[in-house]
Design a protein that fits this description.
12 strands, alpha+beta, 28% helix, 3 helices, TATA-Binding Protein
């Protein structure tokens, strides 16, 4: 009887001790899809606009590698509309306790500069994708900061944007 009680006690203690260890850990999804826009501005002006857009969107700059043209933010929690997962051929949005990092790449192409924005995702839930909302907000703000004041408007739209 004492052996059974001892075995039972060992099983109970080992099961309680096993619950305090993490069973699953998050991974970084290496697949980053970028949204891009071209601007008629020099890269230096773009960097100032990206920093201002980061500030307005409450991002903190994690790393700036201006020689490579890359600016990354710190990790931010996903919002209910920033990322989705495909479930039964539908986009399912929701808070999944995941985090994302905004990455902006600035590439000079002749007289224009291409700005690419994408998010790197870290979470337990697999097969998540960016909805592009945060990237579009950032690119819109960059365009707003680069717009001349007052803008040149013709029948064809804005000039030099």
């Amino acid at each position: 009887m004492r052996k059974i009680a001892a075995v039972f006690l060992i099983l109970v203690l080992s099961s309680v001790a096993a619950c305090s260890k993490p069973m699953v850990s998050s991974t970084i999804n290496p697949d980053v899809k970028y949204l891009s826009r071209d601007y008629a501005a020099v890269p230096n002006d773009i960097y100032y606009a990206v920093r201002a857009a980061f500030r307005d969107l409450d991002y903190t700059v994690n790393e700036e590698n201006l020689s490579a043209g890359v600016i990354t933010s710190t990790w931010m929690p996903t919002t209910s509309d920033s990322h989705y997962m495909l479930l039964f051929d539908r986009k399912e949005y929701g808070v999944t306790n995941s985090y994302y990092q905004m990455e902006v790449q600035v590439v000079s192409e002749g007289g224009r500069t291409k700005v690419k924005a994408g998010t790197r995702l870290k979470g337990i839930v697999a097969n998540q994708h960016s909805s592009g909302i945060e990237e579009k907000k950032l690119l819109d703000l960059v365009g707003n900061y680069l717009r001349k004041s007052p803008p040149d408007v013709t029948n064809l739209g804005l000039v030099n944007e």
